[in-house]
Amino acid sequence: MNTQHSQRKKRQGPRPAKGPECVVNYGTWYLAKFGDTSQKNLRMKMRNKTDQEEWIDEALQKLISLGYQSDERFAELIVRRGVENKSWGRSRIEAEMVRKGVPSEVAKEALRALQGDDPDARATEALARKFRARGLTDQKDRARATRYLASRGFDFQSISTAISRHNGQSD
What we know:
The chain is mainly α. The protein is 68% helix and 0% strand.
């Protein structure tokens, strides 16, 4: 057994940055590997690399100016994913943007895209996917459907409409 090998300490986390360009390279690598993220989250990740705030600020400005990082684009991505892939309601999308570190003014702007959207139709679609052709006739099933849609961020009006439509389709 090689004792020299077993005595080596494993490095925890990313290698410390030696200069501002290393922080830019790390930010570029992070965005390429994990995709869009908020400026707040990227800043937090860069703090693992260095404690030099000037280097982090410089790196973020460079990544923004090159178009690699954009809070607006990231917020639009969350809205698009929430609506198209996950069948989320407005409040769930808002909560996800807060959780991911999107600034509130950027989040409000991205949510304006939902103004022409019909939340009742999205709730009905989500319910149809979850419960297929099964009717929601008894109180237990309706309560289960209500909890499901509420957890997806739909308001009570949309939930009531979706359950009524679902029961009308399954009869």
